[in-house]
Amino acid sequence: LLVVRLQYRQQRLGYLSVFRPAINIETLWARQIDWDEPRQLRPQQSFAAWLELKSDQSQEWVLTDLQLAQALGKHFAMALHQSGLYQQVHSLNINLEKDLQERKQAELRICALNTELEQRVLQRTAELQHTNAELLRQISEREHTLRELQQVKESLKRLSRQNELILNSAGEGIYGLNLQGETTFVNPAAARMLGREVKDLLEQGMHPILNHSKPDGTPYRWEDSPIFAMLQTGTVHHVTNDLFWRQDGSCFPVEYVSTPIREQGKIVGAVVVFKDITDRQLMEQMKDEFVSVVSHELRIPLTSIRSALGMLVQGRFDGEPDKRQRAVEIAFSNTNRLVQLINDILDLERLKFGKTVMRKRACNMTDLIQQSVDAMRAMAEKTEVTLEANVIPVQVWVDPDRIIQTLTNLLSNAIKFSPSGTTVSVIVEDLSALQASTSNSVRIAVQDQGQGIPEDKLEAIFDRFEQLDASNAGHQGGTGLGLAICRSIVQQHDGQIWVESKIGQGSTFYFTLPLYQQ
């Protein structure tokens, strides 16, 4: 028996047993039993061979036998190795086929998943597109809404600014109240009329500030005021004459309208608009005085006319031609005075309200003065008053008829109030020719040597119906409107008129007119 180790590349694969007969028997080796091979050593014989070897009955091995056994061992090792490799390759092939099948199944599954994924992607894409379109629509709507809100905001801002400008520029006082009577807004005109600052009036009770007392000083309760009643009833109140109080304790007459502020039909406050009617009341007072004076001035000549005519009608002067003639002269003189008074009143009112058109043109001042002096010369000669004119050749831009009217009025007054034997002078001076003068005017002076005017009357005589000596003026046919008319005419020529006088030394009336500019 020979045992050979089977090894391939340092890898031990097993052992090979080689048996041979004891004497000249062909050596066979143990392997899988083949019953058709008579020379094959049976396993029982292998054991017998081993027993023979143990009893030193076996044949000795020679070198060729060992070389053959080694060669066989190498071949067997290689065969076993190749068999192992074959088994591994076979196993690998099986595993590979299995892997390939699994991979194919995986690919099928992946393909199915891909198809499902594609369908889901398409579905999801469609949903996202729909969602995106919906979002774009919503975004567009929101952008449109935002633009509209921005436009509304800008409109409200402009409206607020416009309301603020309107409130700030309004000449009437305007303030708002809540139901408790506290201010919510005040415009500058209201604060100015009340002598206060706007910030000092906000969120304050207005009634205790401006309407706390009656004209006689007795308290005026908030609950008794028309504004409180308006907040309770919602009825607009128009008060034509009331008093508001300033911060300094003074009061002034006002007219106001209080209007409720409603929100969803409910009263939430009020707006009060008021204006100072001091000037209006003054104008009404002046109108009343004017009517009273005009009535008086008209009554005087009418009374004289009625009295003279009454006596004539009653025949009291029958047989007395001188008295009858005197009565007729009185009626005629007062009739002329009445006509002049009416004309002067109408003329003054037309000038005051700008209803008289000034037809201005370039005129020679010398010509205007000469015409005025000629018109008054008969009156001067009647009273033995001398008229003088000291003029220079200057051109003025005036309405000639109105300037002649002014000059004749001033000359008439100067003649009426000048003693016999005195002189009335007209003097013209070019103010632009004076040294260092910037004026483009001419100054006309009408100077008399009469009794003079008291200093406290120098301004008042230009008012309507103001006369120094009413009895003398009436005797001379004066109406008290001449100087007022002169002032209106001069002012409409952008000029000034004034008087300088000393008692016992006469008076000088000055007025200026614009020079004609080439």
TrEMBL record:
Protein's name according to its UniProt entry: histidine kinase
E.C. no: 2.7.13.3
GO molecular function, one term: histidine phosphotransfer kinase activity
Gene Ontology, cellular component aspect: plasma membrane
Record keywords, A-Z: Coiled coil, Kinase, Membrane, Phosphoprotein, Transferase, Two-component regulatory system
All copies of domain Histidine kinase, residue ranges: 293-517
SMART domains linked to this entry: HATPase_c (SM00387), HisKA (SM00388), PAC (SM00086), PAS (SM00091)
Taxonomic placement: Bacteria, Bacillati, Cyanobacteriota, Cyanophyceae, Oscillatoriophycideae
